[in-house]
């Protein structure tokens, strides 16, 4: 089983939104073979609590524009690791320190990655 087309659409929109707020190390994994509850994870990092919150706000705004509403949101109060569950995808926005400590990409390395558009992976201004 692979992620649905709708899940990939949401992944791309979430990754673009995170990139727009200068998130770093944006990755997406197809976890549909491993988890029955979701198709994909998006992981992104922010350099400060304020940036993490800005990334989360932008992801929610952009996904709302394409008709997706979060089922659940966790960790928003602390701003260190915010999880936004959309059912089909789960977006993890982590402070850089939490990202290094928890290393989610290491935990999910056996899952295939979902290719993101070049403007997402290139970072701001094509850097």
UniProtKB/TrEMBL annotation:
It is found in: Cytoplasm. The keyword Repressor applies. Coiled coil: none annotated. It comes from the Bacteria. InterPro entries: Iojap/RsfS/C7orf30, NT_sf. Keywords: Cytoplasm, Repressor, Translation regulation. NCBIfam families: rsfS_iojap_ybeB. Belongs to the Iojap/RsfS family. Interacts with ribosomal protein uL14 (rplN). Functions as a ribosomal silencing factor. Interacts with ribosomal protein uL14 (rplN), blocking formation of intersubunit bridge B8. Prevents association of the 30S and 50S ribosomal subunits and the formation of functional ribosomes, thus repressing translation. This is Ribosomal silencing factor RsfS. It comes from Nocardioides aestuarii.
């Amino acid at each position: 089983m692979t992620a649905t087309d709708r899940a990939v659409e949401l992944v791309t929109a979430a990754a673009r939104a995170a990139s727009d707020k200068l998130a770093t190390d944006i990755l997406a994994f197809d976890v549909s073979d491993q988890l029955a509850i979701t198709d994909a994870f998006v992981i992104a990092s922010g350099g400060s609590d304020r940036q993490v919150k800005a990334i989360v706000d932008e992801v929610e705004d952009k996904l709302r524009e394409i008709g997706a509403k979060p089922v659940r949101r966790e960790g928003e109060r602390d701003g260190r690791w915010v999880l936004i569950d959309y059912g089909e995808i789960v977006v993890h926005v982590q402070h850089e320190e939490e990202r290094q400590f928890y290393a989610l990409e290491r935990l999910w390395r056996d899952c295939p990655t979902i290719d993101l558009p070049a403007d997402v992976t290139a970072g701001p201004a094509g850097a």
